[in-house]
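User: structure tokens for this one?
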Amino acid sequence: MARARPGTPTEWSHKSPVDTTMLLIIAALTVAGIVAVFSASYPSTSRPLEDGTPGNAYRLLVTQSLHAALGALLCLLCSYIHPRRFHDWALRGLIAAVFLMLLVFTPLGVEMGGTRGWLRLGPVMFQPCEFAKIALIVFLARCISAAKEWPTRQVYTYAAAMGTTGLMCGICLVQNDLGSAAVMFCFGLTAIFFAGLRWWAVALTWGLASVLGLGLAWVEPYRWRRITAFLHPTHDTDDTAYQIIRMLIACARGGLIGPGLGLSREKWLGLPARHTDAIFCVIASELGFIGAATLVLVFLVFMYRGVALARLQPDGFSSILVASLASCIALQAFINMGVATGVLPCTGITLPFISAGGSSLLMTLAASGIILSLSRQARARSKEAQSECQQAA
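Assistant:
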């Protein structure tokens, strides 16, 4: 069976409109993130500095807004790039991602919180693993898009895909970033799932990875303490389980509708990472169960819309890419929310669109731009199908 090249000229045009639903969700989540970061960061940024200098309560608001503006431009740029370009640049993007991730072990690398995962280029700080997540998904979409058409090649394709994913996860582990390694693996497995590889291979891979993850946690005492704190959060409330307890209290105090935006008590009472990893707890404590559930629903719609767009793509690469990008963004959001609500162990993963952090927001909006680019040919194909139905009638 011949393979269709991604985004043939008759199916993709920069003049075609993007998917309106996806665009509105992206814009709404970005604006919500700016508001949430300002509310969550106010207690820390408004306090005077150690030298007595008055704090600037609007510092992170300005920073997040600037990152959102740059991300919006990046999203717009990616939405006008032809899908064939992503296909052709996949290998080079992966090589660039590996290079940047290895560059953190040079003097340009910066260690924060025990993880050496940042690059400092002058005044700019960047986390290469955020770019690597997108590069991995694009490369895997290209690598495994043929597996559905030639089932006999599935074993080789599976080996190549998991080998590449294992390489990226291994670099994250060397950086002492188990959370990013786990997320990277989930992204790779998601792409394989949408490629249509045999279910038993996906299940077996997940089982083996779970055993390996527990083994890696066992050999590092602090990682194992996180697992035990997750299973028994009330046994060590002053040390390892402190963050879990504070997050659970913050979520619980929000009640059904919450006291209102900006009125959380827990963000003033020592909630760790309130504007990054635990920002969902601040949202839940201010807007209650209704607000938190609404955010979960928005990410579900985001993922559903991405999978729906995948069904309208003209080729395997585009279909796998759009479904994987949308699902992986939502998957990272659900992992973050799972940690915040005590369903998953602490991983140090940001909430896409919402958490403070330039690298995460820029790369999330770049991935959203790729989704919007692919939605142009999905809408074009949908219109063609409608016209064919009308002619047949």
